[in-house]
Write a structure and sequence with these properties.
Layout (H helix, E strand, L loop, with lengths): L4 H6 L3 H13 L7 E4 L10 E4 L9 E6 L8 H16 L8 E5 L6 H7 L2 H10 L1 H5 L13 H8 L6 E4 L1 H6 L4 H8 L20 H15 L6 H5 L5 H24 L2 H20 L5 H12 L14 H13 L7
Length: about 325
Amino acid sequence: MKPNYARKIYTLDDDDLERLIDDWVGHKQSKYHSSEIFAGAGDMGRDVVGYQTASRLEGDWDNFQCKQLKRSLTRPGMLRELAKIFYHSGQGHFSLPANYTFVAPRGITRPANDLLTHPTELAAALKEDWDTVCSNHISDGVVVKLDPALEFTIDSFDFTHVDSLDANRLASDASMKPVLVDWFGADPGAPPPGSTPEKIQPEEAQYLEQLVAAYGQRRGMPYADATAALECSAYGRRLKDQRTRFFEAARFQRYYRDNTPEDVLRSFEDDVYHSVIETFNAAHADALAKVDAVMERAALVSVTGVLNKYARVPVRQGTCHHFANDGVLSWK
């Protein structure tokens, strides 16, 4: 039975929900430069902030307002949180966020959703209900009346940029996968299948040059290039197998770099490295004998952690070629 991660998100306390969202924002690296949690008193209506640029609050930023409630977020609750951000922005503490998202694991009520799905009505409701719903809930001990300056601030904002996320939508977001692995031990799944490109790729130049030299050394005559080695009846098949391993490992790395915390892939690579390094450092008849011995040892590597069942033999062997490609090991 597939785990229900939405239910696990329900069980988080307020602080943990904020930390979870901060981790999630941190994995949206194509959108955010960095993130920050504003917790407790003095947050001025901000919970988790995703900074779109290095300018932080002086540039574009998004606010994720976390509401870990026993029930759905209500219409008054939603308006009061919005009022805080408009008031403190109007006081000059920061510009308005580019986007404002309510993170309410148990969702929002129908009246609240009716406003979210009608942005112009949301703007109107915030102004109409300000004095009766919001004014006493913005700053402790202060009644904040809606004045012309505040009304101008509200009118300047595009309310189509206000949204909500419940636990189900949050758990299914692509950027949540590494967070679910880290927080709840989720299975990241297997990498999608792929193939080895027929043409030599720039990304494989370093290790391939070393392998071609090793095959040339063994046969007693250097190859003109990798293409010539691939066409050789004696060693072409073996070189094709090595390229397959390299690209199997490349797909493995790309997938788990995106879908697990960064230390997971690093731990896998450490396991492979420390399992083969003694074999690599041993005396060998020639460079190809070293390659063959390391490939044999890599096939026996025992991998720990969540990647254990997905680190197939070609992946472990191909990881050694990536070590050679990156200068960690050398096939010379």
